[in-house]
Specification:
The chain is mainly α. The chain has 18 helices and no strands. The termini are far apart.
Length: 445
């Protein structure tokens, strides 16, 4: 009697890459959970402690700065020590930063907890994790998987925002913070049990790998991770394309996480809209973002990523330009149109940007993209703090929305130039041609 039953054969057809992708998706949900809190709790913290919008925005700016700057080093650490230990420590940091906020009484504690701990934790589970998993585990369907994993951020926002808003309204911001901490901690066992570092750990090749494109080799786990990240930055900065992508992605962060993600709810509240209604609208942005990002990944597998980015930034700029006239006490059809178009565009920029990094920087793409993503968060930090100051000084967020719309036009122009640069030879060796001791191949995630 054969020892191989049909069920086992069926199970063997499921490539382990999909299990790793599923755990990564859930991990990104946990990271997104806490990032949904600041916008909801801004007004309650202002009411309880008397901290200005600028002060609270500064704490968020520290969070976003560290969130971005941690990303390239996290990618290098994943290459040196593996994905599982890095993500586990990151989730614990997010849990500690979220849970300990219930004891804070002064603004500096907000900066340490929201800014430093959560910034470091979420930065280790940012888009660099997406780039690492997709590059290391997938040869086929990279764009689609990149879009799905990126959409996890929106899905986390979709799940947590309404819950956090309702908990804050009925039970206070401390209860909401504790719930998010527990949810982040609950992801840790899944990572420990199901996450794997490389296809070779399971005796398989990357999904869709062929003899012509076998995927990256296992990590050699040599060298200093911080130096590897810095060397990748030094080499990448010699390429004009890097600066074009970093500049456009900084504007991406300013016009999403920094401005809308942080200040949409208080801006809507300024126009008489209840915070719970505004939180529901922001969560709905997450609904459409899931569809938009997955579609963007599918499109990235088929069309010029630079041209996709031009379309995305122009559409976002037009949406932001119209937003101040759409906010009011009640939602209108025009408000729903904004939510639809802005939601579809929220992080649709990620898959094409990852694709351009992979095209120009080869095996070092995850670390290089980590630096590009760092610029995203620096832009978000400037917008989070700057929009709060604009609100304190002028009494309205409208100038911030108009400024972000203009910047989106600049981002579209930068992407157009990146597209032209992609179609002509660039001087100097590509990053991935560097000797292995400078940047180990496994860094390619």
């Amino acid at each position: 009697m054969s020892s191989t039953s049909p069920p086992r054969v069926g199970l063997r057809r499921i490539h382990p890459a999909w299990a790793v992708a599923a755990v990564t998706f859930v991990t990104m949900l946990g990271a997104a959970g806490f990032r949904s809190v600041p916008g909801v709790e801004l007004d309650p913290l202002h009411a309880q402690f008397g901290w200005s919008h600028g002060t609270i925005g500064a704490a968020m700016a520290v969070n976003m700065t560290l969130f971005g700057l941690t990303s390239p080093f996290a990618a290098a650490l994943m290459d040196r020590f593996g994905i599982r230990p890095v993500v586990t420590v990151a989730l614990v940091l997010v849990t500690a930063g979220s849970g300990l906020t219930v004891f804070m009484t002064q603004a500096w504690q907000l900066i340490v907890l929201w800014g430093v701990l959560v910034g470091l934790g979420t930065g280790s589970m940012s888009m660099a994790l997406v780039a690492t998993v997709t590059t290391r585990w997938f040869v086929g369907r990279r764009g689609l998987v990149s879009g799905v994993l990126t959409a996890a951020n929106a899905t986390g926002q979709l799940i947590f925002l309404p819950v956090v808003a309702r908990l804050t309204e009925h039970h206070g911001w401390k209860t909401a913070s504790l719930v998010v901490a527990v949810c982040s901690l609950a992801v840790v066992p899944l990572v420990l049990v199901f996450m794997r570092n490389h296809p070779h750990d399971t005796g398989r090749r990357a999904y869709g790998a062929t003899d012509l494109d076998p995927g990256p080799p296992p990590s050699q786990r040599v060298g200093n991770s911080a130096l590897a990240a810095l060397r990748a930055l030094r080499t990448a900065t010699r390429s004009w394309v890097f600066w074009l992508l970093a500049g456009s992605f900084a504007i991406c962060g300013a016009s999403t996480n920094g401005l809308i993600g942080t200040h949409f709810i208080p801006a809507a509240h300024d126009h008489g809209m209840p915070a719970t209604t505004a939180a529901g609208l922001l969560a709905l942005v997450g609904v459409f973002d899931v569809a938009g990002t997955i579609a963007s990944g599918w499109l990235t597998d088929r069309y010029d990523p630079a041209r996709l980015l031009i379309v995305y930034y122009i559409g976002r700029g037009l949406s932001l330009l119209a937003l101040p006239s759409l906010l009011g006490r009640d939602t209108t059809p025009s408000t729903w149109v904004f939510i639809l178009f802005y939601g579809l565009d929220w992080v649709a920029t990620v898959p094409p940007t990852v694709a351009l990094c992979r095209k120009h920087f080869g095996d070092s793409a995850p670390v290089v993209f980590g630096w590009v993503f760092a610029s995203h968060q620096l832009g978000a930090a400037v917008a989070a703090s700057g929009a709060g100051v604009i609100r304190d000084v002028s009494g309205t967020y409208s100038p911030a929305f108009y400024g972000a719309a203009a910047l989106c036009g600049v981002a579209a122009a930068l992407c157009a130039e990146a597209g032209r640069a992609s179609r002509r030879p660039t001087p100097g060796p590509p990053v991935h041609s560097l000797p292995a001791p400078v940047l180990p191949a496994p860094v390619s995630s």
